[in-house]
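U., I forgot to send this yesterday:
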Amino acid sequence: MTETKVETTVEQSQAQQPATPHKNPAQGSRNDLDINFAIKSLQEETQQIFELIEMERTYGAEVSTQLKQIINPLNLSYHIKPESISKTDSSISDVVLTPQGMVCVFNNAGSMISRPLESFQSDVLIRILLEVIPEIKVMLNDKRQKMSGRVMTLEKVAKELRKVPALVPTKPTFGGKTNSSDQQNSAVDTREKSNTGQNQQDAMKSVLGDKGKFTHDQAEEREIH
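Result:
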């Protein structure tokens, strides 16, 4: 009876002990593959982040340069909300973007810090663009309308001035052709020069002819004597 109780107690104690798990080689290799795949994914993600950071910096500098080329000829400054520069700094009282592309940050103490536009982070740059671009559009539209009005006025004045006759008439030439009166005067001068030359030739011949005749008569007189 006692032996039966001992065997029952031993069996119960063995049943209460947790079973030791057996390691599966296939499961261990699967875990290694999962870790290697996760590390490879981290490398790819990191590489893409580095590329995006470089692209963000490049495009930010390009956008800043192009914006300065637009606002510089307008020669106007733009007020920006302090929240666009910093959402946590409550000491900022005013922010001004100059035509040269400098962002001047004023605080409540009266001091001022200026930074170039391209030095800000891309999220701050985007908030600045969202405020400035609509204002630039309005100013460009206003400038275009004023210039259009001036051009129309000058065009009308030019058309009216074309109707006013010139006080001093000019002799226009078309394609190198001269006026008919100029051609007639040139022909008359040519004929006069030709007649003058012919008269001079006739006079020389007359003189030479008389001289030859005089010499022939002298020779005959000498033969008679």
